[in-house]
Amino acid sequence: MPRFRAILDTMPAYKPGKAVLTADGRSYKLSSNESPYDPLPSVVEAIAEGARQINRYPDPGCAQLTEAIAQRYDVPVEHVALGAGSVTVAQQLFETVGEPGAEVIYAWRSFEAYPLLADLAGAVSVQVPLADEEHDLDAMAAAVTDRTRMIFVCNPNNPTGVSIRRDRLTAFLDKIPDNILVVLDEAYREYVRDEDVPDGLDFYRERRNVCVLRTFSKAYGLAGLRVGYLIGHEPVAGAVRKVMVPFAVNHLAQIAACASLQAEAELLTRVETVVKERTRVREALIAQGWTVPPTEANFVWLRLGERTMDFAAACAVEGVAVRPFAGEGARVSIGDPEANDAFLKAAAAFL
Ligand SMILES: *Cc1c(COP(=O)(O)O)cnc(C)c1O
Predict the structure, then answer these.
(1) Which residues carry this modification: N6-(pyridoxal phosphate)lysine (predicted)?
(2) Full-model pTM
(3) What confidence score (pLDDT) does residue 13 get?
(4) Confidence at residue 18, expressed as pLDDT on a 0 to 100 scale
(5) CB of 221 closer than 6 A to ligand 1?
(6) Does ligand 1 come within 6 angstroms of the Cβ of 158?
(7) Could you say which DSSP state residue 279 is in?
(8) CB 54 within 8 A of CB 38
(9) In angstroms, what is the span from residue 23 Cα to ligand 1's centroid?
(10) Which pLDDT score, from 0 to 100, does residue 14 have?
(11) Measured between alpha carbons, how far is 184 from 214 in angstroms, rounded to an integer?
């Protein structure tokens, strides 16, 4: 038998959101926080044009996209690092700090990739339970030891949707020694409407140990192409670039991301529609009698405890795929109005 790393025996497997299909053909995938919209014609055109060059390797330095992101956020190009989806950038971050004994702190439950990436990188996960569906920042600061190398803060938090306000994040960052890297994972930043929820880039601009993770997968609708990025100071971005697998961001992904930045206004109009649907869905759920934490992301969270898997099954009957976490709750993405109505119907029937 080939021998593998012992950690592989205990690692949680990543469970991607699945689709369901009813006998009469209904299928609403609200399990992966994707954009419900088809890609923009201008983006599809750019991809089709780029397809003519795919006999060549992609630009390993992603120069054009790096430049476009740097311009968009008014940061130096040296402060940008790209990856095949921000989950890969997160993996690169774990690789830069992971060694025996290195501790990484993050809230739990949060993004399901964190424990997996920590294990893979040989780092120790320090999971700090959420308090009232929110990051318990006091407990997270108290969990810092001299072995702590990195802290992930997911804002808004996946899967609860709850966000951290500016004053609380400032107070937290003030407590963290500046030799610990703080990663603000802002995969859902474009959906945030609460003005007290800070733009992580403001913290990056003031603090050399803070970096921000963003993605083209959610609001920009490029989940299928895999491209995400980090903005951080040169030592951070440089380290992340160093551990990148060569050519990880493919040619079509680079082209589509550039085209999406050019079509940003159009894409953000779609985001606004999703935000309105989010309000409608949350209010309808509350009117039905559910408790729904305030969400700044493109999903809602229902804490169902032992009823979680029954709830997911009840949604599947209506063709609605949700993301259940057994014994905890279900995360439901905001889709188009028809999908959301199907979900609301299932939720009402379940009660
Ligand atoms: C979806 C998500 C990501 C990343 O997605 P990619 O498709 O890999 O860019 C990162 N962080 C959080 C919290 C997410 O929910």
Answers:
(1) 218
(2) 0.97
(3) 80
(4) 82
(5) no
(6) yes
(7) H
(8) no
(9) 32
(10) 80
(11) 9
In this prediction, residue 179 carries a pLDDT of: 97
Pocket flag, ligand 1, residue 35 (CB < 6 Å): no
Question: Is the beta carbon of 85 within 6 A of some atom in ligand 1?
Answer: yes
Task: Give me the amino acid identity at 18.
Answer: K
* Count of other CB atoms within 10 angstroms of residue 199: 15
How close is the Cα of 2 to the center of ligand 1, in Å? 33
Residues comprising the chain, all counted: 351
Contacts of residue 270, defined as CB under 8 A and 6 or more positions apart, other chains included, come to 35, 37, 219, 221
Please answer whether residues 150 and 180 qualify as being in contact, where contact means their C-beta atoms are separated by less than 8 angstroms: yes
Residue 184 CB coordination number (10 Å): 26
How high is the pLDDT of residue 5?
A: 92
Which stretches of 34-85 are DSSP H helices? 41-50, 63-73
Q: What token pair was written down for 36?
A: 């419900």
Q: Could you tell me which residues come within 8 angstroms of residue 284 by beta carbon, excluding any fewer than 6 positions away?
A: 344
Tell me the two tokens of residue 44: 């599809």
Instruction: Determine whether the shortest distance from the Cβ of 154 to ligand 1 is under 6 A.
Output: yes
Residue 227 and residue 89: Cα distance in Å, rounded? Answer: 9
Amino acid 16: pLDDT: 80
What is the model's pLDDT at position 15?
Answer: 80
d(CA 177, CA 141): 10
**pLDDT tens digits along 28-53:** 999 999 999 999 999 999 999 999 99
Backbone angles phi and psi of 222, in degrees to 5: -115, 30
pLDDT for residue 12: 79
**pLDDT value of residue 336:** 97
Which residues of the chain, if any, have pLDDT below 50? none
